[in-house]
Amino acid sequence: MADIPKYYPPLGFHFRVSFTGATNATDTYFQSVSGLSVQIQTETWKEGGENRFEHTLPVRTKYSDLVLKRGLFRPKESVWTDWFSDTIALMSASSSERKQSQFTRTRDLLIELLNEKHEPLARWTVAHAWPKNWKINDLNAERSEVLIESLELNYNYFTYDRP
Questions:
Q1: What are this entry's molecular-function GO terms (predicted)?
Q2: Which of 1, 31, 50, 139, by CA, is between 20 and 30 Å from 127?
Q3: Beta strand 55-63 with 66-71: parallel, antiparallel or unpaired?
Q4: Are residues 77 and 19 in contact, defined by beta-carbon separation less than 8 angstroms?
């Protein structure tokens, strides 16, 4: 008789996202998170006298943008909305005002995959994220859908660990 596996891969629907300075626990749940992706960029190098192949060498890593989606949260109660609004206001300011301030306020994010007891199974720490794009789905009277906001973030890198 075959052994029954004692471990099953975790499901990807129970997670939370938080960042430094966030205090509202209900502001940490999102419908989806995409963009936890890293690619190693390469260069080719041709060796003199060797015409059968080229060497492919790793050069640097490139991380894609992180996209968070959720139902529109009450704007006055969301630290995410405050962060985006502050960044938009900063970028709309004059260049002399921007020079006196930071380019943008970066934050470190923590994305946790949770088990059935709401305990972390896996963690991704996203370093130096800043808001890049904020989008609200179309307002449409012909559909009865939840209004979704998409938050797109640029970041330097992420690390992965299991608690």
A1: structural molecule activity
A2: 31
A3: unpaired
A4: no
